[in-house]
Amino acid sequence: MMKGFLLLSLVLVFRCDGAAVIDVGLAEETLNDRPIIGVLAQEQSFYLHSKFPEENYTSYIAASYVKDVEAAGARVVPIMIGRDRTYYEQLLRKLNGVLLPGGATYFNQSLGYADAGQHIFEIAQELNQRGDYFPVFGTCLGFELLVVLASGRGKVENRARCYSYTNMPLEFTDDFKDSKMFKPASNHVVDTLSKYNVTVNAHQFCILDENMKAHNLTRDWRVTSHSHDEFGLRFIASLEHKRYPFYGVQFHPEKSSFEWKLSKKYPHSKRPSK
Q1: Which of 30, 71, 111, 257 is the most buried (most CB within 10 A)?
Q2: In the chain, what is the greatest distance between 2 CA atoms, to the nearest angstrom?
Q3: What is the mean pLDDT, run by run of 10 residues, along the chain of 274 residues?
């Protein structure tokens, strides 16, 4: 069920005319019009670095995000960190959208995930202002980055501390069906998301309604659902920009379909627990 919802979301978010590529082989020529989606890399966390102490890895992209986008019918291009503005401008002109993945890195590291995300966020706005439909989807850390960037990056980040490492349902806002993300969702999907523990949460920061109000973001962003962390703190679980095709979810849809570590207890069943 979660897989079906995620694929629906990605198809809607990244709906656009894909770059035209002609495959020429022994068979007849075919037009490959699937969208090309960039997935942003990020610095290795201390935990990951401890797993590969001998290798000189400087960045990574989790395979589950790549599989998730490909399962939705798109092709994936990695977006590197630590590049100048020109690199992102040239690359985004060849893409149909960007996914900002979740992870475990900081926003104050020079030439890292957040700096690259800021270039992408600003260039995507420029593209949309020129009439080029260019969606950006943020998951967990990427969701938080969207809000921090919209707030204006500073020494004090516009997000709050929380502790959420469980599967839970969504608490939809009264007008969530007016949103671009959830308007086409079937009653069955909405019922599953709102009654069962199907959204995977794994985050130590979150965005509160107070964060949105403090930086006047409610004028441009629509909150569509909330959840509660282990201490009862109510945080925003999903939102979208009212003008641009920018979307964010605090939970991890990709884990339900493509991450199967038994100790994590990610929901995979069509009949998840309440």
Answers
A1: 257
A2: 61
A3: 48 50 56 93 79 80 96 97 97 98 91 96 98 98 98 93 96 97 95 95 97 97 98 98 98 94 87 68
Fold of 2-264: Rossmann fold (3.40.50)
Q: Where are the domains of the chain?
A: 2-264
Active-site residue numbers?
Answer: 140, 252
The 3-class SS string of the chain reads CHHHHHHHHHHHHCCCCCCCEEECCCCCCEEECCCEEEEECEECCHHHHHHCCCCCCCEECCHHHHHHHHHCCCEEEEECCCCCHHHHHHHHCCCCEEEECCCCCCCCCCCCHHHHHHHHHHHHHHHHHCCCCCCEEEECHHHHHHHHHHHCCCCCCCCEEEEECCEECCEECCCHHHCCCCCCCCHHHHHHHHHCCCEECCEEEECCHHHHHHCCHHHCEEEEEEEECCCCCEEEEEEEECCCCEEEECCCHHHHHHCCCHHHCCCCCCCCCC
What pLDDT shows up at residue 18? Answer: 46
**pTM for this predicted structure:** 0.87
